[in-house]
Amino acid sequence: MTKLNPSNIIILLLLALLLFILGNPTFVIEEISSALFLFITKYFPAVFSIYIITDLLINYHFPEKLARVGEKIWKKVFHTDSICCFIVIMSMISGFPSGAKYIKELLDKEILTTEEANYLITFTHFSNPLFILGTCFLITKSKVLTLCILISHFISNFIIAIITRPKEIPKSQRRIKSFQSETFSSALTTSIYKTFKLMFLVLGTSTIFFVLSGIITSPIKSPTLKYLITGVLDLTKGISMIPNALPLLGKGIAILLFLGFGSFSVHMQVLSIIKDTKVYYRNFLLGRISQVAISILLFFLCHFLKLI
Q1: Among 212, 191, 203, 189, CA closest to 272
Q2: Greater confidence, 151 or 76?
Q3: What are the CB-based long-range contacts (under 8 Å, 24+) for 57-63?
Q4: For residues 80 and 167, what is the distance between their CA atoms, to the nearest angstrom?
């Protein structure tokens, strides 16, 4: 029996997709327009300025200076050099895929080791807090429930960080390779270029999976199956499709599922960022599966304690 060549399978799938697009132009245009609207009105305004500022902070050696603050506590809790706290804090503020972005940048500057990078990739997957408190609140219509989602999502990452931390605390201060800071004008130009490059990556992958989710779910009649498949492919679209009739507990679980896993759209973004490094995608994937389970358990604990 002749084995199918993987490249031939991909060609067949792409041709089928092309035929669908040519046969349903209005549907595809509407899906792409929706993806662009969400990107322009939600994602871009929330993170563009943050990415610029953090790039400038890295240029002026802020991560190294931040590492000196609370160094003993950081090493005792996470068993890594305190330089890692910059990536954790900034990924919490910016939202995914910024964790992978900062890991790649500090790895390229040899501020971060490969071992630390592979550790950090497992738990620096944070949704933008503004997205949870804003967009997710519009779905839940409950401030308490939204806050429990935010807490469960964030704490689950730190639980993963504790579970997967290195066994031993670093005994000596790692020597960081120094690099010359660029002038402000040059650093700003570089930051804008790199940020737009990342923005186009996010926009491109999000748009592709936005369209794919629409194509795959178009023949599906079940609303539950439709929003679950959509959320796994593109979390923003999946969360927006959660039915209003769904009980609050069900809404919280669905949102945490989509946020914790990150959707294939985010996974593709992370893969693209770390492709030229020795950071392993499997660490990111295992982290996402663990985060889904832990965050939902924490959410159930909030429900058990009658916080929601």
Answers
A1: 203
A2: 151
A3: 58/102, 58/105, 58/106, 58/109, 59/181, 59/182, 59/187, 59/190, 59/191, 60/181, 60/187, 61/181, 62/86, 63/87, 63/106, 63/111
A4: 10
Residue 1: its pLDDT value, please? 47
**Nearest residue to 259 (alpha-carbon basis) of 122, 139, 150:** 150
Tokens representing 88 are 């954790």
Who's near 211: CB < 8 A, 6+ residues apart? 28, 31, 32, 35
Model pLDDT for residues 265-285, shown as the tens digit of each residue: 999 999 999 988 999 999 999
Tokens 């990107």 label which residue? Answer: 39
- Per-residue pLDDT, averaged over 121-133, amounts to 90
Q: Cα(first)–Cα(last) distance of the chain, in Å?
A: 57
Summarised one tens digit per residue, pLDDT across range 129-139 is 888 888 788 88
**195-237 pLDDT tens trace:** 888 888 888 888 888 888 888 888 888 888 888 999 999 888 8
Bigger pLDDT: 143 vs 71:
143
What's the pTM? 0.84
